[in-house]
Amino acid sequence: MKIFILICISITCFSCKPKSEFKKIDFESFEITVPQNWSEIELNGTDSYVGGIVTSEKDTLIFDIGAYSSDVSKNDLPLVFDKKSYAELTEKQKKLLKNTKHLIVDTISGKIDFKNYLTQKFEIVEIDCFKAKIITTRNKGYGTTGIYIDSLKGGGQNSNKTKFSFYGENLQEKTEKEFLNTIKTIKLKKYCH
Predict the structure, then answer these.
(1) Distance (Å, rounded) from C-alpha 149 to C-alpha 126?
(2) Are 169 and 144 in contact (CB under 8 A)?
(3) Per-residue pLDDT tens for 56-84?
(4) What is the pTM of this model?
């Protein structure tokens, strides 16, 4: 009888599947595999398809698919401030700046090497069947992290391109790391398959 009970317990233990740490979210145009505790949110776009995800750290990640989806890598402004512009920042912005490489000067001049104070960097990678820009921050917790694809369909200067951006701002370090991993799981099923 003890052997029978032991066999039943063993079968029960081995037949139970552990709960996955990840789940797929299907946004119709694409799907992405994310941590189990991330949640999909609905957003309304005027000229494109937008939506997003809220992470376990309460960071928000937004995607935008359409002709006017912006390349967030082009928002890479250097963190150089004259005293007047620094004074105009909110307390939250000033707090975020404390952990970044930034410069505060009396007057902004051409003698400053602005490249040393950029907030982002990017690399070109392949995501599903497209070349994509992966944008990361130079300063943890400050700047934009995400992906941009210039043309899911269409091409040429005068055509209607469908662009794709998916990004978060000032992400916590854990979220940034997880987001960069989840970006690699994107399947652009409406465009690649």
Answers:
(1) 10
(2) yes
(3) 999 999 999 998 898 988 888 889 999 99
(4) 0.81
